[in-house]
């Protein structure tokens, strides 16, 4: 079997069309959507990613401000930047980019991102709300996996999905998004041995680990659908996923490529989420509208 390529581009295009509609509605209200990306690293891969978010925002008519605090920034400085941005009326979406300087932990800092502006679902409140089924932004990457599967009409209800990786950015929120769609989910991690025991039964396998070639054809059930979240930069500069594409394509029915798969959709979703946050934050309260309609003009 040679697997079908599940390309991210058409999925991203559809999401960009939705963003465009939102940007037009915001313009009607006199609102320019704004995204702020807080950076405290000189990691090349991160800076590349930040530039690609800024480019995508710019193309969509979303103002993107990169707040570069430098690789020497301390926790307090980062926390106060997030607090200021949370209170800034011109900012509707906030992302704190990882990695952070040594000794600075992201998990406490992200609590300073206002939940309404948490467009990458980093605040623990967002993950909690997602878990109990309340409205919240999911991390863009976790949602990208689901958007790709839905775009290609791969059913989730009643299917067994094996997610490899349990991070707060991908595995855990993805578990919630999949449960909400009635999938049966296995979440695997570094202690799930042997890994194939937990992947070989699954109709859908998602790899989000950060190890090139971890998932091979030998881990898969014939006809499985495979989503590769991994973005690993090799010494020669090549970007590869967590799935060994050649052996996997022999067994799988469909596979997302790296590059050109999940990453493409992630960036489009961050921009879409920013416009959704802007719409919610600038909505007139229903009571104010009711009052207005009673006021003689
Ligand atoms: N395309 C995109 O938009 C994005 C891509 N990524 C990419 O996805 C990958 C994962 O990122 P992230 O979730 O942040 O990574 P983390 O390092 O936070 O988590 C990795 C997970 O993989 C598990 N793991 C490690 N080794 C194995 C193994 N041998 N077998 C099974 N599981 C294992 C870990 O287990 P344990 O918990 O036991 O340590 C952990 O749960 C990276 O390549 C990253 O670059 C990430 C975010 C966005
Ligand atoms: N809290 C958090 N959220 C993240 O979303 C997050 C993170 N941490 N840590 C690092 C990874 C990495 N990541 C990528 C996103 C898009 C592409 C992307 O757009 N890739 C394109 C182009 C790649 C190329 O051409 O080089 C593609 O795959 O086709 C890549 C990588 C988000 N990450």
UniProtKB/TrEMBL annotation:
<keyword id="KW-0378">Hydrolase</keyword>
<dbReference type="GO" id="GO:0009086">
    <property type="term" value="P:methionine biosynthetic process"/>
</dbReference>
<keyword id="KW-0521">NADP</keyword>
<comment type="subunit">
    <text>Homodimer.</text>
</comment>
<dbReference type="Pfam" id="PF02882">
    <property type="entry name" value="THF_DHG_CYH_C"/>
</dbReference>
<comment type="similarity">
    <text>Belongs to the tetrahydrofolate dehydrogenase/cyclohydrolase family.</text>
</comment>
<dbReference type="GO" id="GO:0004488">
    <property type="term" value="F:methylenetetrahydrofolate dehydrogenase (NADP+) activity"/>
</dbReference>
<keyword id="KW-0486">Methionine biosynthesis</keyword>
<dbReference type="InterPro" id="IPR036291">
    <property type="entry name" value="NAD(P)-bd_dom_sf"/>
</dbReference>
<dbReference type="InterPro" id="IPR020630">
    <property type="entry name" value="THF_DH/CycHdrlase_cat_dom"/>
</dbReference>
<feature type="binding site">
    <location>
        <begin position="165"/>
        <end position="167"/>
    </location>
    <ligand>
        <name>NADP(+)</name>
    </ligand>
</feature>
<dbReference type="GO" id="GO:0000105">
    <property type="term" value="P:L-histidine biosynthetic process"/>
</dbReference>
<keyword id="KW-0560">Oxidoreductase</keyword>
<dbReference type="GO" id="GO:0006164">
    <property type="term" value="P:purine nucleotide biosynthetic process"/>
</dbReference>
<feature type="binding site">
    <location>
        <position position="231"/>
    </location>
    <ligand>
        <name>NADP(+)</name>
    </ligand>
</feature>
<keyword id="KW-0368">Histidine biosynthesis</keyword>
<protein>
    <recommendedName>
        <fullName>Bifunctional protein FolD</fullName>
        <ecNumber>1.5.1.5</ecNumber>
        <ecNumber>3.5.4.9</ecNumber>
    </recommendedName>
</protein>
<dbReference type="InterPro" id="IPR000672">
    <property type="entry name" value="THF_DH/CycHdrlase"/>
</dbReference>
<dbReference type="GO" id="GO:0035999">
    <property type="term" value="P:tetrahydrofolate interconversion"/>
</dbReference>
<dbReference type="GO" id="GO:0005829">
    <property type="term" value="C:cytosol"/>
</dbReference>
<dbReference type="GO" id="GO:0004477">
    <property type="term" value="F:methenyltetrahydrofolate cyclohydrolase activity"/>
</dbReference>
<keyword id="KW-0511">Multifunctional enzyme</keyword>
<keyword id="KW-0028">Amino-acid biosynthesis</keyword>
<keyword id="KW-0658">Purine biosynthesis</keyword>
<dbReference type="InterPro" id="IPR020631">
    <property type="entry name" value="THF_DH/CycHdrlase_NAD-bd_dom"/>
</dbReference>
<dbReference type="InterPro" id="IPR046346">
    <property type="entry name" value="Aminoacid_DH-like_N_sf"/>
</dbReference>
<comment type="function">
    <text>Catalyzes the oxidation of 5,10-methylenetetrahydrofolate to 5,10-methenyltetrahydrofolate and then the hydrolysis of 5,10-methenyltetrahydrofolate to 10-formyltetrahydrofolate.</text>
</comment>
<feature type="domain" description="Tetrahydrofolate dehydrogenase/cyclohydrolase NAD(P)-binding">
    <location>
        <begin position="139"/>
        <end position="279"/>
    </location>
</feature>
<keyword id="KW-0554">One-carbon metabolism</keyword>
<comment type="pathway">
    <text>One-carbon metabolism; tetrahydrofolate interconversion.</text>
</comment>
<feature type="domain" description="Tetrahydrofolate dehydrogenase/cyclohydrolase catalytic">
    <location>
        <begin position="7"/>
        <end position="120"/>
    </location>
</feature>
<dbReference type="Pfam" id="PF00763">
    <property type="entry name" value="THF_DHG_CYH"/>
</dbReference>
């Amino acid at each position: 079997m040679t697997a079908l390529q599940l390309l991210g581009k058409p999925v991203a295009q559809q999401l960009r069309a939705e963003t465009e509609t939102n940007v037009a509605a915001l313009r009607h209200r006199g609102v320019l959507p704004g995204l702020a990306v807080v950076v405290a690293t000189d990691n090349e891969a991160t800076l590349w990613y930040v530039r690609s978010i800024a480019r995508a925002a710019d193309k969509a008519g979303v103002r993107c401000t990169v707040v570069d605090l430098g690789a020497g920034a301390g926790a307090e400085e980062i926390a106060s930047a997030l607090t200021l941005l949370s209170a800034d009326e011109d900012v509707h979406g906030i992302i704190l980019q990882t990695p952070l300087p040594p000794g600075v932990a992201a998990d406490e800092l992200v609590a300073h991102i206002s939940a309404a502006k948490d467009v990458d679902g980093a605040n623990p409140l967002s993950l909690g709300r997602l878990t109990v089924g309340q409205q919240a932004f999911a991390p863009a990457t976790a949602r990208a996996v689901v958007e790709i599967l839905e775009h290609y009409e791969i059913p989730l209800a009643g299917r067994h999905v094996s997610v490899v990786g349990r991070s707060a950015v991908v595995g855990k929120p993805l578990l919630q998004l999949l449960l909400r769609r009635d999938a049966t989910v296995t979440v695997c991690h570094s202690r799930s041995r042997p890994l194939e025991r937990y992947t070989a039964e699954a109709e859908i396998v998602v790899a989000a680990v950060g190890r090139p070639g971890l998932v091979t054809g030998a881990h898969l059930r014939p006809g499985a659908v495979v989503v590769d979240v991994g973005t690993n930069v090799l010494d020669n500069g090549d970007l590869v996923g967590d799935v060994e594409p050649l052996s996997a394509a022999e067994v799988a029915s469909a596979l997302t490529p790296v590059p050109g798969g999940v990453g493409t959709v992630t960036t489009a979703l961050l921009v879409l989420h920013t416009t959704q946050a802007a719409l919610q934050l600038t909505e007139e309260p229903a009571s104010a509208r009711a009052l207005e309609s009673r006021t003689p003009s």
